[in-house]
C-alpha cells in the first residue's frame, strides 16, 4: 500500500507521539516510525480500510514488543529510571506534541501501568480513538478496553492534578533556584511538599543516588550537596522541557543534567534529575558561551 508524502507528513508526528508516550524514550522512536511506514508498503490494499488506524496499530504493536523485551533491562537498571527528556525547541519542525500527557511526571507515572493500560490510555486520550477503534487495534473486546482505560486513569489520578501553567511554574522554578543559590533552606522547604520525592537517574553511567530521595529535609540536603560539588564552570539555563520549565545544567563545558518538576498548587511534589548521558539530548550538548 502506498503512502503519499502528505500522509507521511501528517501522520509522522502522531506515530512519534504514540511511541514516546508509551515508552518514555526518544532513542528508538524515530526508527520505529520509519519501520512502520516501510512495512505499510508491504500490506495489501484490501486489508486496510483505515490507513491512519492501521499505522497506529502497527506502531502500537512495535512498542508493545519493545516493552516486553525491555522489561528485564528495566528491572536491571541501576537506580531510579526517568523518562528521556525532550527540549521542545530542539524537535524537528514537523514534530508537534501537545503538552497534556507529555510532562516527565506524567510519563514516569505511566511506568505504573501495564503495557495494555499504557496503549489504551494513549490511544484514547492522545489520539482520540473510540473504544471500538481501540479494541480493533489492541485485539481486545470493546468492554475490556473501557475497563482497562478506567483502571489506567485511576492509577495515574495523582498526576492529573499537575499544574501545566508554564508562567506560574517558571516562577516556582525561579524561586527554587534562588533558594538553592542563597542556601535559604527555609524558603526551599516552603517550596517543597513534605513528602516530595527526588529521582536521580544516572543509569550506572554517572554518579547518582541509587534510590529515590524522600521528604523535604532529605531532598534539601541532597540538593545542597550537588551544588557544593559543582565545578567552577557550572552554569544553567531555564528551558522548556517536555512543555514545562526545566533546568538545563552544564559542567566541564558539557551538558550535565536536565531537571524537571512535578508541581501542584505552586508546591513541588517531585523533582526528576536526569544525568544518564544516554538519555541527554545529543544536539543540546554545547560549549559554554
From TrEMBL:
Q: Where would I find the RNA polymerase sigma-70 region domain in this sequence?
A: 10-71
The molecular function GO annotations come to: DNA binding; sigma factor activity
Matching Pfam families, A to Z?
Answer: Sigma70_r2, Sigma70_r4_2
Q: Which residues form the RNA polymerase sigma factor 70 region 4 type domain?
A: 105-155
Task: Tell me one GO biological process term.
Answer: DNA-templated transcription initiation
InterPro entries, sorted: ECF_Sigma-70_Domain (IPR052704), NTF2-like_dom_sf (IPR032710), RNA_pol_sigma-70_dom (IPR014284), RNA_pol_sigma70_r2 (IPR007627), RNA_pol_sigma70_r4_t2 (IPR013249), RNA_pol_sigma_r2 (IPR013325), RNA_pol_sigma_r3/r4-like (IPR013324), WH-like_DNA-bd_sf (IPR036388)
**Subunit structure, interactors included:** Interacts transiently with the RNA polymerase catalytic core formed by RpoA, RpoB, RpoC and RpoZ (2 alpha, 1 beta, 1 beta' and 1 omega subunit) to form the RNA polymerase holoenzyme that can initiate transcription.
This protein's name = RNA polymerase sigma-70 factor (ECF subfamily)
Question: What species is given as this protein's source?
Answer: Aquisalibacillus elongatus
Amino acid at each position: 500500500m502506498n503512502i503519499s508524502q502528505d500522509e507521511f507528513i501528517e501522520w509522522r508526528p502522531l506515530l512519534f507521539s504514540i511511541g514516546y508516550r508509551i515508552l518514555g524514550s526518544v532513542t528508538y522512536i524515530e526508527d520505529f516510525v520509519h519501520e512502520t511506514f516501510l512495512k505499510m508498503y508491504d500490506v495489501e490494499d484490501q486489508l486496510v480500510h483505515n490507513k491512519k488506524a492501521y499505522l497506529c496499530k502497527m506502531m502500537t504493536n512495535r512498542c508493545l514488543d519493545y516493552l516486553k523485551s525491555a522489561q528485564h533491562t528495566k528491572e536491571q537498571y541501576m537506580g531510579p529510571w526517568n523518562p528521556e527528556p525532550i527540549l521542545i525547541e530542539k524537535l524537528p519542525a514537523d514534530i508537534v506534541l501537545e503538552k497534556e500527557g507529555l510532562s516527565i511526571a506524567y510519563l514516569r507515572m505511566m511506568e505504573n501501568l501495564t503495557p495494555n493500560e499504557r496503549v489504551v490510555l494513549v490511544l484514547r486520550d492522545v489520539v482520540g480513538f473510540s473504544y471500538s477503534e481501540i479494541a480493533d487495534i489492541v485485539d481486545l473486546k470493546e468492554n475490556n478496553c473501557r475497563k482497562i482505560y478506567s483502571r489506567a486513569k485511576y492509577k495515574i489520578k495523582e498526576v492529573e492534578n499537575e499544574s501545566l501553567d508554564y508562567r506560574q511554574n517558571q516562577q516556582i522554578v525561579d524561586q527554587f533556584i534562588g533558594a538553592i543559590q542563597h542556601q535559604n533552606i527555609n524558603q526551599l522547604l516552603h517550596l517543597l511538599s513534605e513528602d516530595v520525592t527526588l529521582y536521580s537517574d544516572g543509569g550506572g553511567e554517572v554518579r547518582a543516588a541509587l534510590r529515590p530521595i524522600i521528604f523535604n529535609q532529605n531532598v534539601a540536603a541532597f540538593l545542597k550537596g550537588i551544588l557544593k560539588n559543582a565545578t567552577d564552570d557550572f552554569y544553567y539555563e531555564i528551558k522548556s522541557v517536555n512543555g514545562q520549565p526545566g533546568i538545563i545544567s552544564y559542567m566541564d563545558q558539557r551538558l550535565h543534567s536536565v531537571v524537571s518538576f512535578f508541581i501542584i498548587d505552586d508546591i513541588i511534589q517531585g523533582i526528576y534529575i536526569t544525568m544518564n548521558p544516554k538519555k541527554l539530548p545529543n544536539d543540546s550538548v554545547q560549549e559554554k558561551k
